[in-house]
User: What shape does this take?
Amino acid sequence: MAFGERAARVFPGGSNGNLEVGVVIKSGTGSRVKTTDGRELIDFLMGSGPMILGHAHPAVSEAVERELRNGSTFFIPAAAAIELAEMIIEAVPCAEQVRFATSGSEATAYALRAARAYRRRDKILKFEGGYHGMHDYALMSMAPNVEAPFPKSVPDSPGIPRSICDEVLIVPFNDSSTFEDVLDRHQNELAAVIIEPLQRMLPPAPGFLQSVRDATAKYEIPLIFDEVVTGFRLAYGGAQEYYGVVPDLCTLGKIVGGGFPLAAVAGRREVMAAFDPKTNAKPVLQAGTLNGNPIAARAGIATLKILQTAGTYERLNAIGTNLRSRLTEVLASKTNRAQIVGEFPVFDVFFCSTPVIDYRSSRLANQARLDAMNEEMLARGVLKGDTKFYVSLAHTDADIDETVAAFSASIDATLARIPE
Assistant: This one.
């Protein structure tokens, strides 16, 4: 029985809830993956972001193999976890202390819990279309199919208590005026504001992040940057370094674990003290069997050491800029109803001509064309996420050339399938 059929028998819908595109991966090396049916694909999914160095990087693999000989988990602080926390504090502007978790969803849930305890308020404010994981608070207006009046929130999944709707306020990304108005009216109810500094693919407008920082500081409301995607990707210090705006807390994941299950909450000592049982009679509870797992931590350390090397981000920028500019040229030659949106290491195609600046404007893009393009790319040997190209340091000039050729043919096929 083929692996796809076996998956359909054991997983609801044939998957674990992640991307399902009709292939099963057997292995990955560098910029490419091999499927169980013998195909080799250029990979721009990169595990949904963690594999910034490429698959099975020798330095990471060797570090993990060495650490495995020392044991796999202990449930008390491991040396590797302390070393990784020290690297995070040195790298990330807001980080004075760190708590590890296993996934980005856990990290954002714990960051919000810490902020609620610190602020002694219950409500949170998030931005429509922002992705903060799979917990109940995160799945409010992450991808709503109705345009509710701001700041009303809409649950994205069955199974979320209706009471959560009253605890989450929603505002549009890149709209300082609406944000400041809602913040002013609800300042005394809010525990925190959480934001992706690069919201999915949408860059912040000039001055927008600073306006969010200024307004939250005015009311002493903790600002949380969800940097699970942007941490160690846009720059070694993440979006905080790249955009020059420093929050009170941030969440990290993907790259920081080197491809292993690891995430973190990091931030100002004053807010992180909410976790401290030595200074709180009732500290924020946050425990997990694999928090700070030494194998994952050692993979993260090995990854960050490579990213520290001089010229690394310049090289990543060059790879991403080259791919993005060439794909843009292809689009311009074939249609005036498509554009590429994002930053140099992570971006995607939006099939529309109007500016894409927030969730509602992104919904004007033709999703059917994007889905068709992704299918056509896969048929031509290029794997990408349903909404992202993730660029890695492993992608070569040959990969870029092959991808541009596949993209050109895929756009032709897409426009033939779904004419303008």
Notes: The two ends are 41 Å apart (CA to CA). Residues 87 and 305 are 9 Å apart (CA to CA). The chain is about 35% helix and 15% strand. The longest strand covers residues 190-195.
